[in-house]
Write a structure and sequence with these properties.
Order of helices and strands: HHHH
Distance between the termini: 36 Å
Largest sheet: none
Number of strands: 0
Structural class: mainly alpha
Radius of gyration: 15 Å
Number of domains: 1
Length: 95
């Protein structure tokens, strides 16, 4: 679970960077205004929501659907991190 929370934090930080640099916009309509107007609140809400979801999944970890949920959420954040890193390397190469 700690890995998921670290990946979520990295996603939040990369999102702040991309949005404020003008390269992207927040895809989540619920968080879109927060990322622009209140970056610290954006990170706290994002971490809180994923943290609460993780606690819920962990609480029911003995159920197969919760295990699948943990795995899927981890994969989503893992691929988001790869996407962020790929875009960062693209910008570095472009110079």
């Amino acid at each position: 679970m700690a890995g998921l929370l670290v990946l979520n934090l990295l996603d939040a930080l990369f999102t702040l960077f991309w949005v404020h640099a003008g390269y992207a916009r927040e895809a989540n309509a619920l968080l879109r205004d927060l990322v622009q107007l209140h970056p610290v609140r954006f990170v706290l809400v994002k971490l809180g929501l994923v943290g609460l979801g993780s606690i819920l999944l962990w609480r029911y970890r003995r159920r197969p659907t919760a295990v699948v949920g943990i795995f899927v959420v981890f994969l989503v954040y893992y691929f988001l991190l790869l996407h962020h890193l790929r875009f960062l390397s693209h910008l570095a190469i472009r110079g």
